[in-house]
Amino acid sequence: MAIRLLWLKQSFPKRFNMPSNERMASTLQPKPFKVLVLGGSYGGLSAALNLQDLCGGRPPRCASEPPDTSKFGKIPVDITVVDEKDGYYHLISSPLALASKEYAAKAWTKFTDIPGLKNLRMIQGSVQKVTASKKHATIIESLTNSPLTLDYDFLVAATGLRRVWPVVPQAKSRESYLSEASEHIDAVSKATDGVVVIGGGAVGIEMAGELKVMMPEQRVTLIHSRDKLCSSEPLPDDFKERCLIALKESGVETILSQRVLETEASQAEDGTPGWNLHLSDGSKIRAGHVIHAVSKSIPTTTYLDESALDKEGYVKVTPRMNFPPESPNSQYHFAVGDLTKWTGIKRCGAAMHMGQYAAQNIHQLMLEQVQGVEPKFTELDAIPPMMAIAVGKQAVAHFPPDGTSFGEELMEVCFGSDLAFSMCWNHLQLSEDPAPSL
Ligand SMILES: Cc1cc2nc3c(=O)[nH]c(=O)nc-3n(C[C@H](O)[C@H](O)[C@H](O)COP(=O)(O)OP(=O)(O)OC[C@H]3O[C@@H](n4cnc5c(N)ncnc54)[C@H](O)[C@@H]3O)c2cc1C
To answer: Is the ipTM beyond the 0.90 threshold?
Structure first.
């Protein structure tokens, strides 16, 4: 506090309302910092909530080794989170949400029903353009379908990747998501000639496995073009081989090293609708329902200036999670989660971790402006490839330095009993009412 008062006497930077006379100096209130977070999922909510903690003088909730915040006091802040969806959707559980109507209802919670978000301003809308040089962003607000320009002091981009159906639901509201999931689950359960999942990456494996768990009577076949599952992941062969064993143990049939050349709609002799799949070895198999789990997901960063992006559209973040120095006002712009160019496999744990790093670094910049404190930035290390997959009732994981492990106990450790819904929800402390407002 002493440092802060001393510094206040020296100058009135633009963070403070200018007093009309000297007597007002004792009642000076710094203007709240405006922080705009784009994307209200793992990375975005982590950045927003950890920053809210820090500005309230509390340790950031997601930090395993939180900084000592007791000496910093409170910093007024207005945090706005923009998302196309009307709620928090536990995206990693999509394979289960698209196999069980009961679970689907749990996986999406409207932002207005989440106690932990009460002190954040949530706007449902789609980000169209960020003008980093002017520090403002234009969004199309869903409610009015009209443009809204938001000024900010700090921005966090956390809008992830654009993924196709049925890898993830495409709905923007909870109601339409529930009907989207319900229609899919009905189609899969009624498929009299079985279900074929095309694509043996992590998503295809989980989709096939969850279907078999939820609908044990249904015949589920997974077709993959390579001789190993998860073939494009930078993980060792023993992990890929264990995924295949676990998938077979769950009751899923597998066809490897075959491409599906054509998927042709055709009725069975009794009139049942279905599909004939023509494979690269000339064989043909029949399916009542086909799920494509093979698309490449692309970054949602079309609203950002090219100077911040690599050729594929990922944000070229620095270890502090800042935009690259060649991008305007880069020190006030941060990106976290899947849309960043960073080492390792895209994971929700990494997104939340990056979110709290961005929060700590934004807080340091605020402290510098408000209290004249020399900032101490937190820098992210390279993340090695690691992954845990739910394959039916067991998990298969590869975490360095332990290597590959698997089993039902591991499932409990990695995913609990609800495909990690509770783990993520509790990590972000979404049930907790916010501490008294700032
Ligand atoms: C089927 C599946 C299973 C997975 N399983 C696992 C797993 O077991 N473990 C694991 O660690 N990871 C898993 N992942 C990866 C994990 O889901 C991602 O790493 C994680 O979601 C990244 O979080 P994020 O916050 O960066 O982005 P996202 O979770 O993708 O969130 C981005 C948010 O931004 C919003 N948005 C997008 N564009 C805009 C826009 N223009 N304007 C406004 N809002 C926008 C979206 O609505 C969304 O809410 C899985 C992924 C999939 C698809």
So the answer is: yes
